[in-house]
Amino acid sequence: MPKDNTQTDGGIGASTLRREDIRFLTGEGMYTDDIQLQGQTHAVFARSDVANGVIKSIDTSVAAAMPGVLAVFTGADFAEVGGNPAGWLINSRDGEPMKEPKRPVLAHGKVRHVGDAYAAVIAETRAQAMDAVAAIEADIQELPAVINMADAVKGGSLVHDEIETNVCFDWGWIEDNRAATDAAIKAAPHVTTLELVNNRLVPNAMEPRASTADYNKGTGEYTLYTTSQNPHLTRLLISAFVLGIPENKLRVIAPDVGGGFGSKIYHYGEEALVLAASKKLKRPVRWTASRSESFLTDAHGRDHVTKIELACEKDGTFIAFRTETMANVGAYLSNFSTVTPTFLHGTLMAGNYTVPNVYVNVKAVFTNTAPVDAYRGAGRPEATYSIERVIDMTARELGMDPVELRRMNFVKPDQYPYASAAGLEYDSGNYDRQMDKLEAMIDRDGFEARRIESAKNGKLRGLGLNAYIEACGIAPSNLVGILGARVGLYDAATVRVNATGSLAVMVGAHSHGQGHETAFPQIVADMLGIDPESIEIVHGDTAKIPFGMGTYGSRSLAVCGSAMVRATEKIIVKAKKIAAHMLEASDADIELVDGQFTVAGTDKSVSFGEVALKAYIPHQYPIEDIEPGLEETAFYDPANFTYPSGAYACEVEVDPETGKVTIEKFAAADDFGNIINPMIVTGQVHGGIGQGIGQALIEQTSYDSDGQLLSASYMDYAMPRADDMPFYQVNHDDGTPCTHNPLGVKGCGEAGAIGSPPTVVNAVIDALQRGGKNITHIDMPLTPSRVWDAMNAKGV
Amino acid sequence: MYNFEMTRPSTIADAVKALKEEDAQALGGGQTLIPTLKQRLAMPSILVSLTAIGEMQGVCMSDAGEVCVGGATTHATVAREATAYPGLAAMAARIGDPAVRNRGTIGGSLANNDPSACYPAAALASGASIITNSREIAADDYFQGMFTTALEEGEVVTEVRFPVPEKSHYEKFVQPASRFALVGVMVAKYADGVRVAVTGASESGVFRWTEAEAALSANFTADALGDLSLDGDGMIADLHGSGAYRAHLVKVMTGRALKAAI
Q1: Least CA distance to B172: which residue of chain A?
Q2: Which domains are seen in chain A, by residue range?
Q3: Which residues of A sit within 8 Å Cβ distance of B?
């Protein structure tokens, strides 16, 4: 594969403008809610306004008789169908499997969080359905809510009575390392302990969730248009687990999707409801979430309460990381909720470091809150935050430079492949080189002068620098199967060459902001030596694309992109055979250069387009040796995760009078391996850092003790805006290629959200320390009031 | 949203008449009312839009030298045209965002009297006169607590008259999510004394900080606030800050407004 990152011909390495932006920026996108079907009806859900309650009765008779009402559903209508399953089985330390209470289509018997849907009305108009929902008489006996995880683990009120506990599992990683880690920490000359909260986040995709079902009574086929990051997975869950609709009778289409950030990976009950309703009514049934429903029912992210210890020698050499975490899973297990705080978190707890002992204990806890699942970064931001915060604290305690402490413990370039103490094998990286770049980018040497200048204006200036590593391209199937995954984690691509030489590439990955429609053609075009504009990416429709696992975990390029490479390689092999026949040569002598098949050492050649035409008009064709047509599919199952890494720096000013933090500088030096489209990568990093800054400074998901979501609208939930953001300095040149996928790529979608929260917090703590405040930690988000409260606490 | 009728009269008299209908509701720029309707938190029978009433539009000067703002004038217009009162224009220029400023109106803001809105602080600090279809109300009598004013049912704010101060400034510390004022302070120096009005902070809505007014009336300098402080009791406490924090911010914002005014 060519790996030249400086190409400008539209192939690999070109910063081609995103072709999909034309339709997005001119209002021509086709989102689920834009799809209008003949005879469509509208679903509106009745949602619980209490966090925990027994459904004594639901009287729908008045609602059912109201104008325009076509059907009313309650949980009883779905009592016989399956639950929405967790995609990953986690076993507790004692070997017991996790507790898996059923997650029904509609709440039945009990409601378990504010927003839990217990009934739905289908009507001719949305307003009629809303009126009828208001007329449903539900007698729900409120029970004490379980909101705080520390309370939940003690028992008392239960989220799910049938499992007799609020603890889903109590997981140890690696359990065999527990005793050695405990002993190492006990014997260590220095141990730093940090208790922290990784704050719960609401995903806030710009497009709310929406689902429209269309049952065709003539064919018995269902079509579901839905906001999904992985239409095949959604179809599989609905078919095999929930409604039992045969896969061949269910087509799932995820058209343009306006952001997901993880929240649209999962199957939700609303999808099953509209399908069942469409079958019953023989008419299309549509539903689009209001923004309030998004806040209350989209799977939230993060929400860990953690104690981390770092043990080290007096000189700073790391001896052990030990972590105890409570991870909130909310009221029900969302599809990836069990793997996110375990394998996507615990396996990263060695960070970028040559630490010999790592042990992680995670208790997953049910509470009467919205389900929590993977959100941009998914487990790895939690790991990175814990590690990089405690290292900064250790450096302060030891009186060492935080960068030097990190450097002396970094895995070095000559140590790859490196088996981390948390069970992963890092294949490549160069953390010192990234840190070198970072220190130059942020002008670390000039910091003191800038700090003095800030002080003249009454501001406290601080600098945070840290590293991160993540595991992306989630795979391989054999390994994840051993670890409890109930799905495979490969991906697939079909490359279809049209008769006139243009291409359609059908991919299992789904693009909802990632720019696949632009970047993927760059790869195929580069391999074939043709114009990327002649290649179309087809995604998001189970009737068109091969069975792929979709887009999350920064896996699309590393896994689906690799499948695309393999399929294209098959195309080249076959095309060379056809060309050899056309040129009356041996296919071993055919070379493909710049879209021309040439007999080596001669001037005899045919173009890619001529070969394509021959494949579909196979006159004078060696039909006994070669099939007509030019279309190939490949499934790719990687050998390992990929390991993007990087070093991030942030410089802040704190206004000591108000507690307000402003970000003055931010630099990111990332190693994503090889880069396909540098502009898109830069955009992904910008967006990720934006979300990381949001988490670090302003995004606050707050439930009161009754389980009411206090931050349930943009009046109280702060999203980062342009003027909250600094001008980023971003660099992802000179990456160390992934060693095991054909593109040498690692993935870039989540890095910004993973690396940046600790950087911001480290910078703020640094500013406060330099300002003479004895503050070692503040929990995110570092809102002005929280910073001011910390600065004005007794003894500070 | 529930169904409602809509009318858009062109005179104050017609608007007042329309508002006599049962469950009629006046509609200014709709920046609060429309979201409320969308949430089904209000069910008016008819909305009476005030935006087509020419006599309620625009900024002018009265013979007494007051800046007069029509009740249906948008914040953007005030920001652009209230040049005779720079502190007021600058305050209007920082309300919400451009979309809000080009729809929201002074009358709507004052009639709603959101405890975190900017306009109540400006009106109170200026000792403005709130003119309605039936009377003139002094700002000191107008604001009566969160979302509560002296307006009677069906009474319309047709104009607001601002005496122009010698010096003034509005300083706002925004709530990170809504970007309403977590605390906003307007300081206005008149020949007969200084007025300091605070929004966002108190459970009783906009209020005058009389101790600060006395101190600044005696000595309009940056350090005149000295050891003055406010108590956190009675201040709004929520996930964006405690009462003590808001009380502290009132002092900080007052100091900054003062510095900018000087």
Answers
A1: A658
A2: 20-29+490-636 (3.30.365.10), 32-143+203-297 (3.90.1170.50), 145-201+300-411 (3.30.365.10), 439-470+643-796 (3.30.365.10)
A3: 127, 130, 292, 657-660, 697-698, 700, 702, 710-711, 714-719, 783-785, 788-789
